Q: What sequence folds into this?
């Protein structure tokens, strides 16, 4: 097992290096850039563009730039964002909003999806099951950005129940940045309520596809377990249906779902670029979208590396979780 | 009748959505007649076709898609106006029973139905061509790796691993922003290059197991060339799984393309796409013209839904899961 983990970690490390090259080349070989050097019309703007290129170190040969960037990671230096602050502090500043949104929507999603899938499996081929199956198809096919737009239209613009954008109202202190000190003088219930109001629409937007996927997964998993011999044995023993389902079936049906939790890690960190952008949710994903427009290479590279790292880690963790919950699976 | 067993192979694999007893019973009877060698043996594709048309939901998806394709072909003929025409007088008009104003107009007076009819082309083009590209690359990489094995396989699979880890959406947005996403060919290339790796893995696993089978060894002993064995003898056996995964790819690509248009890094005016119509409506959201974002989004949803229905039906008709196991 240990050798397996070590081998996987080594493989992941090699893949990560490959990815760093891919990211670097994509950013530096595509046209355009932070200085608009190609678009300079007058001599003055050309000179400014040149100064900009020089200041950002973009005039150095590509291998030099690459090794400077990668070398920086080795001492925990993520580079300097073109916004003038270190990328690492930018990430730390944006991370809480993303994690808050993703965790909220993920938890709500599981709370809705698992019972839905379970009931649907218990009443297979019933009217409820058919309606559920159709709706899960609709959920799977939903363009998230359109859903977000329509939610804003209906609940924020028309009904005016929720704000259209942002994490908190302008009058409220953003409570996770800066010191806790500036929270003084504000009613905590008001601050949290304001946050929750901003959170609801983007969380729903994110949830829909997840509910469709997870509930179908849960339904299939439950159906598989219900056809097993030990469930029949339990029935033959005369156990109550409720007990069979909750005590015997549910536990095993939920296992594949539990091992899939690790796969949520990339989303937790990478966030949802589109949803964050629609709702101007000041997280990592929205920052990524604005960084694209500003050609903020250091931030873009670090964001891509972080998401790739999260994917690799998540895959490893979910494989290990499989072996952990199911002793029949062995890696060597 | 005994209920068919369910296997959990992934988030999307699920039991047939509608009662399948009729289709399954039919398939069983057909299998038996094949064994008994009745006058006219039924071919594999006939069997697949019969199973498919029994699958109601898949049939609905297929019919919807044919209608959509017809719409994409004849859309410009049906449209009351061209995207380049101007109509300054009837902006922000609510839907009414009239071909031109059936879905209302946008702030500039363009009929929303024009966006729907013209936009179908872009969505279907991107969906289909990006999928073809994905499948070609995936099949090539997977079959070469699976057939030759050894270091060739190792190289191919490490390459696949790298592409499998690429964050799809961030890179899609970034690349289409930096390559001037206005060009539809670029969008197709980007989608294809970013998404071939799952297909490659799938094909490779099939080729690995096929390679040791007798018919391949027999072909090798007869001196048949490697490419001919790979594509003439082995690929047809892996084709059904490629078809199913490709169909589901189409759905993902259509949404992805609409998403980058929506974010403003995809197709630009004067081109017309559903995602672009949604993007344009966003700035006028406070005006209360609900029809503007509603219809392009519905068109998108219905298209993707049809593709997903079709994909699910194909999976059951081609009986892919049974073969994977």
A:
């Amino acid at each position: 097992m240990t050798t397996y983990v070590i081998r996987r970690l080594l493989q992941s490390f090699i893949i990560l290096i490959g990815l760093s090259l891919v990211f670097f080349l994509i950013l530096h070989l595509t046209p355009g850039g932070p200085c608009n050097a190609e678009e300079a019309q007058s001599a003055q703007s050309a000179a400014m563009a040149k100064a900009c290129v020089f200041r950002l170190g973009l005039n150095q040969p590509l291998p030099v730039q690459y090794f400077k960037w990668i070398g920086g990671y080795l001492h925990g230096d993520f580079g300097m964002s073109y916004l003038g602050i270190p990328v690492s502090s930018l990430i730390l500043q944006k991370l809480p909003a993303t994690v808050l949104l993703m965790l909220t929507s993920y938890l709500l999603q599981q709370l809705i999806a698992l019972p839905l899938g379970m009931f649907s499996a218990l009443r297979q081929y019933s009217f409820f099951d058919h309606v559920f199956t159709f709706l899960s198809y609709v959920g799977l096919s939903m363009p998230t950005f359109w859903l977000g737009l329509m939610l804003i239209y209906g609940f924020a613009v028309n009904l005016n129940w929720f704000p259209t954008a942002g994490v908190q109202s302008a009058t409220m202190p953003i409570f996770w940045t800066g010191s806790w000190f500036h929270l003084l003088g504000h009613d905590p219930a008001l601050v949290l309520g304001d946050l929750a109001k901003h959170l609801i629409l983007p969380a729903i937007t994110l949830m829909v596809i997840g509910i469709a996927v997870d509930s179908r997964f849960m339904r299939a998993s439950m159906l598989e377990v219900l056809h097993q011999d030990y469930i029949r044995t339990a029935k033959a023993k005369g156990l109550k249906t409720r007990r069979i389902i909750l005590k015997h079936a549910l536990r095993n049906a939920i296992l594949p779902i539990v091992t899939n939790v690790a796969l949520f890690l990339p989303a937790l960190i990478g966030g949802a670029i589109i949803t964050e952008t629609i709702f101007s949710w000041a997280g990592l994903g929205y920052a990524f979208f604005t960084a694209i427009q500003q050609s903020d290479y250091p931030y873009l590279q670090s964001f891509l590396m972080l998401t790739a790292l999260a994917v690799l880690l998540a895959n490893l963790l979910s494989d290990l979780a499989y072996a952990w919950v199911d002793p029949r699976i062995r890696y060597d | 009748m005994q209920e068919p067993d369910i296997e959990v192979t992934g988030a999307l694999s699920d039991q047939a959505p509608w009662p399948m007893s009729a289709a399954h019973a039919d398939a069983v009877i057909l299998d038996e007649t094949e064994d008994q060698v009745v006058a006219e043996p039924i071919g594999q594709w006939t069997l697949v076709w019969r199973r498919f048309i029994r699958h109601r939901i898949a049939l609905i998806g297929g019919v919807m898609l044919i209608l959509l394709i017809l719409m994409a072909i004849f859309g410009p003929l049906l449209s009351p106006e061209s995207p380049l025409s101007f109509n300054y007088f009837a902006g922000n008009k609510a839907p009414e029973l009239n071909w031109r104003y059936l879905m209302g107009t946008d702030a500039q007076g363009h009929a929303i139905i024009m966006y729907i009819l013209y936009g179908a082309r872009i969505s279907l083009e991107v969906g289909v061509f990006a999928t073809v590209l994905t499948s070609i690359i995936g099949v090539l990489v997977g079959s070469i790796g699976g057939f030759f094995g050894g270091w060739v396989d190792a190289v191919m699979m490490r390459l696949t691993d790298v592409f499998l880890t690429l964050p799809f959406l961030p890179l899609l947005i970034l690349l289409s922003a930096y390559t001037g996403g206005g060009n539809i060919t670029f969008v197709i290339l980007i989608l294809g290059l970013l998404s071939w790796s799952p297909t490659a893995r799938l094909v490779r696993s099939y080729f690995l197991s096929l390679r040791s089978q007798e018919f391949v060894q027999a072909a090798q002993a007869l001196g048949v060339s490697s490419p001919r064995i790979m594509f003439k003898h082995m690929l047809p056996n892996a084709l059904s799984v490629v078809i199913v995964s490709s169909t589901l790819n189409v759905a993902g690509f259509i949404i992805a393309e609409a998403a980058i248009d929506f974010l403003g890094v995809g197709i630009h005016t004067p081109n017309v796409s559903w995602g672009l119509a949604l993007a344009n409506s966003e700035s006028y959201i406070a005006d209360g013209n609900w029809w503007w974002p509603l219809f392009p989004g519905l068109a998108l949803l219905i298209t993707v839904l049809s593709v997903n229905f079709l994909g699910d039906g194909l999976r059951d008709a081609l009986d892919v899961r049974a073969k994977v196991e």
